[in-house]
Amino acid sequence: MEGGSRPTFRRILFSANTAHTGGAIAVGAEASAVVEDCLAEGNNALGTGGAFQVHDGGMLYLRRCVLRDNRGGNGGALGIGAGVIDAEACTLASNTADFGGAMAVISGSADLRRCLLLGNQAAYQGGGIIVTSGAARLEACRVDSNLAQIGGGAIHAYDSTLDLRECLLACNEAGPSPGSPGGAVYCQSSSAGLDQCTLAANRGSPGSAIHTDDAYFLVSLERSLVAMGLGGSAVEGPLGGAITASCCDIWGNEGGDWVGPLAGQEAADGNLCADPLFCGEAIPDLPWSIAASSPCAPEQTGACGLIGACPVGCDVSSADDAAIDPDPTGTRAAASLGIRVSADPNPLMAGASSLIRISSVPDACTARIEEITIHDGAGRRVRRLPAPGVVSMAPYVEWDGRDEAGRWVGSGIYFCRVQIEGIVYQCAMTIVR
After folding, report:
1. Whose CB among 110, 144, 314, 323 lies 3.0–4.6 Å from 279's, allowing a Cys bridge?
2. For residue range 199-213, what is the model confidence (pLDDT) as tens digits?
3. Using one digit for the tens of pLDDT, what is the confidence trace for 275-288?
């Protein structure tokens, strides 16, 4: 579509379409399109944008869409060629491409807010996103378990700028062997700013989390947590390069923490090297949330505030303390009765319901369920659900994503708290609207 057209697509399935660029939709010069609450799956583009593509000044607005199992040469789901994409509360999952498993930005810009990029793959660079001579801004996004074969497990930038705010980049991989730089982020002649981000368990070498190859471009980390990286040290690049960190915790990375271009910064500007006390198995759906006693929690950091993208979500006292139940709202935790609470589906999309499952060992089947409540990330209660009696009577409890007044809750991380015989059990849910 070109020439000033302004279509809007709502609640449409785009499936198994093929084109040279933009398998389902291509937006060209002087045109813009709005795509809301749509599903794009199984589309294919030989060139750019397996599902959707914009070029030559076109603009595409995506809201609450799911793009999965699409394939493109550049950008498995989304492609930009001198255009603009603005996406909010979208999920890009299991897409594949040569470059940019989920999205390729070429001489254009992308702005993603509250989006999930999960399990995308690139045959070369940018398992999640590749940006070339362009710009990408991500806010409150989760980039998880993406894979590139050569570099930039989550994001690869060349001659570009990156701006990441309150983002979680976890379990991304830059490649299967040494010489695959930037487990999470790989900057080539590019600048990057990361503010209040968590980079955890990414794999790459050089740079288990971040690698930059040019000393003249600034990479800055503020209030960010870089932990448990595999392969290289946490951040790698030319010695003497412009890599700065303030109010950051860099800890437990296989190749080293405050080394290389970060050496000498560990004792300055609020930086630290300490176990962040991730919640781990205590909150299986959001293991990178932190304990109330974490050195990254606001109560311990002073003027720095929260370090990392994930909230306080449990009350464990060490990384191995799996017997303590999560409790961000202050209710006491006690010994486990062999009960586990989980949510399905997770993330929860617009118009769907989440099933809160309560599973247990046989001895706990007669335990009494006293209360089931939903809380936002700050611990405020948004909904009370009916308690069905005893555990054996509750294979699941349904939550429709609404608050007490019947309104849809906004996008974000929520907690379901189930109180059983005085013990609080909890699971985390990601809501995408």
Report:
1. 314
2. 999 999 999 999 999
3. 999 988 777 777 89
